[in-house]
């Protein structure tokens, strides 16, 4: 580890870090240690939240002390082990290995030879704290006074022995015997400079300033190669540059050093290259931007010169022209910048404002003359140059880093996928390995780098100060020598001072956009408004008014208006009456306005279920952050941005979803006012609604409140920053409301963020766990369509795909003629904001197009082809439909003042052209509703069949089919959805200088669309000619052509391979417009020829409009005059998904308009498919439904959107994700096209950090991982895809789930065999008796008949000669269908219910042992043995007893051996505990068993023991750590419930004897010890009690009610029964909703009891459960107990509800073949076989096979008994289920047993099951059998079988044959059962 000693091979830094990384991974507790390359080069850059910030370039082996104390790596510090020194060398501290003294005190007076360029420094040795060791170090590797400019690495000499050339500090530290235990670092050990004092002695000088005085930041390295020094838009990636000051020079006398400082605003667009709140005056001739601080991040593109300086000392083969690893956009190396300078602004506008710095006082020009700025500079140069200062140090990146980068990406992306969250520290140490160049090398390298830029970059070198260079630049500007130069780099390389440099942006276009991009959105609107109000745009308006053949557009409009006044009147009358007349007369009307019923689509359903799944995951986690079991219902509040349209749109969706009624929040007559309580606009009035929401959440703790934050990427401003006076009232409101303490801490508030652009919520400081993100699913997986949809979604990727070669009609386009005119006018009006110019140009184009379409054909030369196409199709659309349907054009104008100007102008032109009834112009403002003319309101009402006279459209969705131009204003869209009749989306005016991913994608999201795919359009060819129309103007692409399918003649044409769609670049046809030529002529451009020449050669427009050679070749396409291009239209035919656009159809859902707050159509039948197709060729709206809208973009945005990187990822995806975040490092891996949404999220979570203005900025807990809010989810999906419908549906299914969680399915079945009961009018007790009277109860006869409905398939027990009809027995059903077919009902859980492991509440946390405040309950294992003669061996059981339950047991004092379980006394009376221990046998139900009896016992103390099998012990202990477990011996692992009952009873009796002995010593009588235990099924969920009211006049009259009560109440009531110890078993009814009065008329019954019994272990000492039984063991035990003369009492006033549990229990026994590994179902007929046969043996207990076989196939043994209920089968000493068609008669062979009288019975069969010695021949001869009756004898083995036949003398009356011997299908080792059958003679 480290570097070797002298003479040995030296390792590289890479090997060293590799070694460290391997060791760190072995030591680290983290799953994913930091990769090697992140240690070398890729440390995350941290921003410092302070007004002071600095940076320092650390040397290669540097690591700060703070980094050791609070390292970003979670690995433990590595111990450094020195290699053993060479033999024989000196190892004394203070001496070198050559034995020479190096201590300062010893050699201070020695003459030491110091080579040139070296300095003497003092090194600290850890073993000699009071001494300094003298070293000679090359000063290039030491920092200057500011802690900077130190080269990486080390170069030093030993002053003792004189050895030179130590190139590694590791090697040098070994030589001077520092004996370090940590990695040697020069920063830690080289501490002081050494200087000579006046006496010539060497003394300690100043401290070596490794850190500087400011906080540490990280210097970033520049990326582009020399040929891409200043990148055009395609190459301008997320590189960073920061400025700290903007210096304005208002007049020529202002010196350059005069500073006008300003804190950089946090509200600046994050893409602004330069940032300051100080903006130069409106008429200021220039702007100088200076950076007086070192930047906090790695500067590139503008602030640095790349690849300049020497390489690191170990890297070979370097050249200044080497490509760099951070070419984010992968530019071609020979790209010519001047060819793209029209858009070179991208190099500026795409740069990220990354640092937060404040006003400082570091002068830029400390000495030197002031800069004289010429007054006439703006007038001469038509530009305001922007100057900013480069960092003092320019870092370097070598070729090897390209290799490192690729390797790192491969290693680190896997880390990203596993998500290793890096916790940022407050001020982390951020070392950087960046080599620096000398000041002498910089100018040379800068010139070399700029040499290939063809004068686009000019280098000025000055030797005195920057002022000198600035003066030179201004001089060159005045002289016109920088006409082709866009950037001027000024370098002051003074030898005596630090390097100084700055960059001036002199390109007209670049400087303008750079200046404008510095404005915040508020400042931007303020500036535009200022220009409008002060009349600065009047000259622009005057210019446009002259663009007309007549010289004045207004004159032309007035003239047209006067000439067409009369024609307009008649036309208007016809237009108004036409639709009504057609409708009244029944003539053909357009049927395309079809009504789509509101429905949830498969995608939305899937997303809603994913949301529900995530909520359940939160609840199921061990963090206890969400207790779903405690909530009874759902409430919600939807927060939307302050857009009136979005607000109404959300109400619209809420109404049609029906979720309010589903949640029980709305009444039958739901009003709009009622709905408005659930949606809140985040404006100034939002806090009132929100307070009500919070109050409701606090007052209703059992309601789950879902707080939905829709459009969640809007307003992420921190509440702290929104308190500034200039902030709007709504700014920061999201933070104040959603992140307030009350919301965060409320356990019943769940927050759901919903957005299409989640990137700003995916930072290092996010509140949302990555596991709580839900992403919209993709349509396809491995080529398979996941969800069948009848609509195809068109989003950003589909729009981009349409521009690729091979596709026809591109959906994304730009308008070259528009861009050219904007460029020309920008030069003519340099003082106007470019947004003003662009808006006026576009308005002029629309005005001219409207005039041209209206008949003023001379105006078509004053617009662009694109605008003309839009306007022409819009105006003609309503004419092509008999009902007047048309389509919508969205004109996006972000700036509200400009939108108002555009609206007024277009409205005016429309009115003058008499087009007022042809189409509407709508001004859409965020804070206001929709206003449209009365005529169009009436049209909409007719189309939508609305009768409400007061109805007005409130959402854009309700404008379906209305021909209109929607001027969409507002800086950002706020979630407004557009109708499906949208045809054109004109985004030519969006702010192209603010290029961040969210901004671009949300603008393009406006056009997201669902296309009807009912007609498959795999290949559709557009006819080149429509019906002849003399007024139809030529257009690049005709949107109104008829569609021919592939089979037609036109369909056979080959699609034109599109290199350049003519609609993309209309310069060839539209630049001949007089408007454009006029604009250019004013510029007096020498390149300009005639307008005709312009049309032929679009490249003569000047360098600003020239295209890249590659782009020209790819995109240009000639358009012949008069010819229409035939374009193949290719649209995918698969369907996908809707959002709000489809939901406009929901407005016409069949709802009574009087009851709906959104008046909608009544009922309308959808048209047939054929009629729909017929109308398709006529109605433009119907066409719009089948085609995505066409989007027009600014050229700059188009280029960025359509370009991709090497992986195919759109470059827009690599932009900074949001304004309010910044990159954690400029040196980060590139995104990949193959990244899933989850991987993108993890990428942003690692590589972005919020700015201080972001609401998540302060979400940092030092070094801890609990920054995620546990109840916060994020739903993201493409825009307009249906997220609103998905989360509304989620609310519904969440509500249903909560209701379902509070409900259980309980068995609800009538008692069976009621008709077989003895009819008796005698009642032994009164209805109101609460306890049985012992003497009276003894008189009640035992009811042998089974009434429990679960035994519907069991054999009937006959007691006497009965007439049992076939109808009295229900038909049998398959065993596997029992759970499916048994009748259940859904019951709401009461507060006294028993729960499974999924229940969590505050009250029972401690009971369950899951309270996070307590450690898991410790348990101890105790053996407990007792002997039992019937088993012939000692039984050893094990108890698992938690510490908290040990008080229930008695332990021996010395050894803590378990002695007994404490039992109370019969005489004990207390309301605080239950006397009877409860045993619950269970298998396979560790999760679902109802073992939580805390609520059922109403908090009373009780002893509850789970009886589990040995192999299930661990899993039960995991789920129920605070429960006592009784673990059965391993021999019972495959046993049934009979074994558990047997062991419970025997253990309890043995324990009773132990307790009697123990307490007898205390003077207590044995009979006073409580003898009862409770044996309960694991599915008993609730208990009920019947309250009888006998207050009637007659004693026999009574009324009763049943209510849910606690188990505590029932048990304490039964335990208080008089003479309770005289009853052997006590039980209760099984609950049924069909219980009638007759069943409870007698309050107590002497009959069978099941499921929940109290067992007297004392009285039943001699009655055993059969440990072999699997089924009906309780019936068998009841019969045994009765025959022994014991009392069995059923309390009919009490009932138990049993929950249907579909897992575990008997279902856990699977019978399968013992040979085959694959589970194959075996029929019950195969469960037995002949002995010694080759039958397939089964892996199942023999007893189970026997019982199953007898249940289904006993008719083979007892053929005479089938349905012969008057002649039952005699069953001796046991009850086995022979199936429902055979009746049995039970008799006991025990002496003195109680049996029925069998004197009159003749039996059809005899069943002898494991007969004991009590069964003798004489006993059997008492019974009579039918002739031919059958006998079945069952024994353990064949020998016992024969002995039994002989002992019982069976051959006297029964005939046997060899073939009548059988066995269960078990192998010999599994001990099969054998049985013999015979016939009665």
Q: Mind sketching the topology for me?
A:
Elements: H1 13-27, H2 36-40, H3 65-69, H4 104-107, E1 118-125, E2 128-138, E3 156-157, H5 169-175, H6 186-189, E4 190-196, E5 202-207, E6 245-248, E7 287-290, H7 346-349, H8 377-381, E8 386-389, E9 395-396, H9 400-418, E10 435-436, H10 441-450, E11 457-462, H11 466-479, E12 487-492, E13 500-505, H12 508-517, H13 521-533, H14 538-545, H15 553-563, H16 565-585, H17 602-620, E14 633-640, H18 644-657, H19 659-662, H20 672-675, E15 679-681, H21 686-699, E16 703-710, H22 733-738, H23 741-745, E17 749-755, E18 773-775, E19 780-781, E20 784-785, E21 791-794, H24 796-801, E22 812-814, H25 816-828, H26 834-853, H27 865-877, E23 888-893, H28 896-912, E24 920-924, H29 934-944, E25 964-969, E26 982-986, H30 997-1004, E27 1009-1012, E28 1020-1022, E29 1043-1044, H31 1067-1070, H32 1074-1083, H33 1091-1096, H34 1109-1115, E30 1128-1129, H35 1140-1143, H36 1169-1176, H37 1180-1186, E31 1190-1193, H38 1195-1202, E32 1221-1223, H39 1237-1247, E33 1248-1250, E34 1272-1276, H40 1283-1301, E35 1303-1307, H41 1334-1338, E36 1356-1357, H42 1378-1381, E37 1384-1388, H43 1405-1408, ...
Parallel strand pairs: 7-8, 11-12, 14-15, 14-16, 16-17, 17-34, 18-34, 22-31, 23-25, 23-26, 24-25, 26-31, 36-54, 42-43, 42-45, 43-44, 48-51, 53-54, 53-55, 55-56
Antiparallel strand pairs: 1-2, 1-4, 2-3, 4-5, 6-7, 8-13, 9-10, 12-13, 19-20, 21-27, 28-29, 28-30, 32-33, 35-37, 38-39, 39-44, 40-41, 45-50, 46-47, 46-51, 48-50, 49-51, 52-57, 56-58, 57-58
